[in-house]
């Protein structure tokens, strides 16, 4: 999936996260989290796995996390990528 | 009480009553409504306005929350709405925000990061932890060794022999010169054309790099007054944010030691910017190392200081012969080809001129 425009998904509420995506030549994932020390590595894992499954190989992914659970992180990253790409059909089975 | 809040958009140009409400709310926090705001995100508790945040392009400002609603995480909701509106409806996902320094922690909680602050009056933030960092990294790849590294920032609207003179004089005084062209597309000549003309005009000169501008340098973000000259009071314009960004980030990234500028006989705002340069770049206190500001007397042709505004006036009059005495051939040729006033209006201007 190709990120062709800037998009945003999520909120800054507790237990949620705000994901911003933008077109870039390389893949860059920037994570800021209220629980960076405890869960920073895990958040990155979930984000990168979600991007892999959606076949996103380049773009800037900016995450402002307020303690979102894994499922929330996955959903917000998917939402932002979908909004930022012009894709019609989506294979939900692989996600 | 937060649960019942409604968020809405308000265009201050179209909705006069709404704009008055916003103005009142801002006044209760000692803020004025800036004229360049295109839309406000507002929060209402039933019909009462309780919070607002203005958006001018990619800049968030005039943000305030009624005292009774502070400490309720309303700021996060408000800034969240602003980011969605800016990204999805206006295509700006990289945002800047003006606030007072004591509010910085509040906006840090909303995903904004501090760039610079001016004493206790104003602070500029951006909604990414890597914005200025990435920009400085790019700049660092253009670093050149030397004792005296110069910089000149020009709008070049359009490039004249005066700009060429400034660059030549600056080159005499430094080992390498970085020339930045203001990238805001708010001038008579487009940014792409201005940049082309600068490159063409400086072609052949050694020891210099021509850089495109950025949001961090003389832009509507850092120095909005420059682009709305007609409507603002020169004394009230803040040049500090722009100059401190230069001093704390751009100059250290490139190792700049000297900033060169032409003396300004005409425009009072540019003259103030030049004066303020001494204050904000040269003073000992400040986060970045102090710089030297060197003012170079403006080039004069036939007893008249060369200026881009005069070139534009000659363009309006269609007088390319006179233009050729103060602008290089590449500038004259491009203006003639792309910006010459069409027949009807040109004739009128010519008539006016002959009357004078």
Report on the structure:
- Chain A has helices at residues 36-53, 70-84; strands spanning 7-10, 17-22, 27-33, 59-65.
- Chain A is of the alpha+beta class and 95 residues long.
- In chain A, helix 1 crosses helix 2 (70-84).
- Chain A starts with 6 loop residues before the first strand and ends in an 11-residue tail after the last helix.
- The model of chain A has no long low-confidence stretch (mean pLDDT 92).
- Chain B has 356 residues and is of the alpha/beta class.
- Chain B has two domains: 2-129, Gcn5-related N-acetyltransferase (GNAT) (Aminopeptidase), CATH 3.40.630; 140-301, Rossmann fold.
- Helix content of chain B is 38%, strand content 21%.
- Chain B has twelve helices and 14 strands.
- Chain B has helices at residues 16-27, 74-90, 104-108, 131-140, 161-172, 191-202, 240-254, 268-282, 308-317, 320-323, 329-339, 343-355, and strands spanning 5-10, 39-45, 48-56, 59-65, 96-99, 113-118, 122-126, 149-154, 176-181, 208-212, 258-262, 292-296, 300-301, 304-305.
- In chain B, the strands form three sheets. A seven-stranded mixed sheet of chain B has the order 1-2-3-4-5-7-6, sandwiched between helices.
- The longest helix of chain B is centred in the first third of the chain and has 17 residues, at 74-90.
